[in-house]
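Per-residue structure
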Amino acid sequence: MDMTEEFQTAFIHRDLLASASYDMTVRLWDVETGECRYILIGHSPYVMVVVYSPQGDQVASGDEGGSVRIWNTRTGECCHTFTGHTETMTGIVYSKWRTDHLW
């Protein structure tokens, strides 16, 4: 996949763009070169939303099945998976005051 294919949503933090895609992946792209640094695999079904932590060291992604995953942007590894929602995840917000909380 290249950056011309369809994706659901994207956010940029410094030199890294995170995209949520209908192919069930989150991808981290180098803004300068256009190269994909990491393909983050683990969601099933479609990834609907992605957002950076305030520090930029994590990306949170949510899918159509109601799960949320937290990814390390330096390693591409999944740090945490949250399940239990029964509806599609359409928004994720990190707290500006407490860096250990998602809302």
The chain is about 0% helix and 45% strand. The chain has a mean pLDDT of 84. The radius of gyration is 13 Å. The first strand starts at residue 9 and ends at 13.
